[in-house]
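Request from the bench team (R.T.):
"We need a structural guess for the complex before ordering more zinc ion. Sequence and SMILES attached. Just send the tokens back."

Command: build protein-zinc ion structure.
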Amino acid sequence: MSKILKEWEWKYQVFFDEEVQRKTLAFAENLKREEKALFLKQLKFYKSFYTIDVLIEALKNKNLNQKKVLEKALENKALCAKTDQSIYELIKAEINFESNEVNNKVLKLLDYSLETDYDVKFINYLMLCFHIQDFKNIIEVIYKKANQKQETADVREIKADKETILLEFNEFMNSLMKNESLISDYGSFDNSDYDVKVEIDSGYGEWWDKDLYEEYDRDTLILYSNDETINSNDFHYTIIHEVYPGHGHFFRTVKKQNDAIDTGASLLIEGYATYTEINSLKSAYTNNLEIAYAKTIINALNLNYDVLNKGSIRLVNQKKGYLESYFFGCFAIEYYVKNKFGSPKSFLEFLSQSNKGDFYKLW
Ligand SMILES: [Zn+2]
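Reply to R.T.: structure attached below.
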């Protein structure tokens, strides 16, 4: 498994991190001619700017020379993208380096970024990844979905202690693995060799494939318990997204010894997992989720900061494409499955024979 780009956050590292730059370029050499051309354009997009959050992360990265990072930021001030006023204080609170000189310089750059006219829109990345007609069709579908009616979803609270979570997980996972309609749509899930851990942190869950990420030596599912109880819907659809038919099933099915995989291709990887959330076990909850996702992606692409929450604004403004990839990717996968592949299973079969990246345009 040597053709894997394991730097899954390369899009937000490549501006300042030369080692990540080197690895992305080496990865490109594994691709077919057209894929390579497209990947290099994607790389160019993410090297054409930096944001203050991207800079702060680089400055906090122990593997990088802080002085060099700051020099590069100052030399390339013109490529510092605009910061939205509404998240100024949030970002400022994180400028807390040991050196006052560093703090002052970053603060100055932050102030500068409020005033600059230079901004980079994620929609430009999408224009690289999709044929214009497909893009228009997907947008049209998203607007229709945003106008659907909300329904009332049944919900049960689950106690969030470790034992209950593991019990609930096993029970629900077994029901998914025996679900005939999922098996026929996606193929069966044949991986029982993975660890399940319950941890306290933000979010719902994460799946780490042992071959694709440095973080774990065994396939690992992390489930998060942050409160006294969790909502059964959030819990179940997290398992769908993370394990089956989401990430765990996806990686298991599509990774092949000789194919290249860009783990940073979030339009594909997160798009697919989010697609499984709203298409596996249809319910009032998934209907509402679909509406919420459609509205969020419309607001994110239109930069309607006044209706997004601060956390979303920060992602849209500072980590371009991070949030959008889940939702645009989800509706894009739905569109391609419907119009090109016929079923999720044939989509996965197709991918298992190809290199894996944000290559929608080439399908
Ligand atoms: Zn995910």
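Two things stood out. Residues 241, 247, 270, 273 surround zinc ion (CB under 6 Å). Residues 122-362 form one domain.
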